């Protein structure tokens, strides 16, 4: 079980950190639940303050701006969940104070801001991670284990999909000033999983992006695709869209296919994790790993010195790949990463 507890597992044992940890959150966008949901199983952790939120939980001090919160509160960890345009500045403000940061993704919209955060994370006392929670979910943990076992051989092709409902009411995603783009906001999850599960690095990228119909989305692309060269000359392909109908059972439709020299392993919501190899017929993997907690994993790494499932170096790398993929789409070019 990862991160000391299973997400949402009411019977799991509490995780002790050996000290009091005061946490604050900036903003309400994205995966704030990665911080708030595990709190009942984190008795040493206190959600002390929240800035830029319309409503805060009982007992949590509210602030209208994060600078005042950072100046007044004695904090240990900050979750940065602003819109994309404001995120890098808020992360830097936290890291410069020596605070540990759990940030929404991407952590920067521009390469200059990307490098600034990378430098701050490298030189500061504060640790840094991104909200990429799919690493901690059973299907993708299972795919990584399959690849590590050698059962499908060397991965030569990785295919991914991220399909979302549009949620046009989230207006900040419809403006270039506050939205990094569909590749960095949506695609980054699958880019991370494609690298992590396959064990392969991305070396080059080409991409396309556009908005087809749906004028209410403004600047937001609702269709995109990226093609990656792998470090073993294999290929990665990722498709992304905001075209999932509101009638669909789930908000997202995530898919991942790993084709190797000995077989193929893949995940879809409707079929689960399946594998077929040169030595065995297709089968469904029934015994999946337990779900973990990104936040608990980060706290164990910071305060107990345990290895993390999501190293800072991976966060830096996947952010860069996402920005490069967006640039490749904007320039209609093949770019080295």
Regarding quaternary structure, what we see is single chain
- H/E element sequence: EHEEHEHEHEHEHEEEEEEEHHE
CATH architecture of the largest domain: 2-Layer Sandwich
The tally of beta strands, per DSSP, is: 15
Distance between the termini: 34 Å
What general form does the structure show? globular
Beta-strand percent range: 25-35%
How many structurally independent domains? 2
Low-confidence stretches are none
User: What's the name of the CATH homologous superfamily of the largest domain?
Assistant: Dihydrodipicolinate Reductase, domain 2
Number of helices: 8
Top-tier CATH class of the largest domain: Alpha Beta
Largest sheet: 9 strands, mixed
Please compute the radius of gyration using only Cα atoms: 20 Å
Helix content: 25-40%
Spatial strand order of the main sheet: 14-13-12-11-7-10-9-8-15
CATH topology group of the largest domain: Dihydrodipicolinate Reductase, domain 2
Average pLDDT, to the nearest integer?
95
User: SS-based structural class?
Assistant: alpha/beta
3D architecture notes:
This protein is an alpha/beta fold and 337 residues long. The protein folds into two domains: 2-133, NAD(P)-binding Rossmann-like Domain (Rossmann fold), CATH 3.40.50.720; 138-290 and 310-336, 2-Layer Sandwich (Dihydrodipicolinate Reductase, domain 2). Helices cover 28% and strands 26% of the residues. It is built from eight helices and 15 strands. The protein has helices spanning 33-36, 66-72, 84-95, 111-123, 138-149, 182-198, 294-304, 312-331; strands spanning 21-26, 45-51, 61-63, 77-80, 100-103, 128-130, 155-164, 202-210, 223-230, 235-241, 252-260, 263-268, 272-277, 280-284, 335-336. The chain has a nine-stranded mixed β-sheet with strand order 14-13-12-11-7-10-9-8-15. The chain has a six-stranded parallel β-sheet with strand order 3-2-1-4-5-6, with helices on both faces. α3 runs parallel beside α4 (111-123) and α6 packs across α8. The longest helix has 20 residues, at 312-331. The protein is globular. The two termini are 34 Å apart. The mean pLDDT is 95.
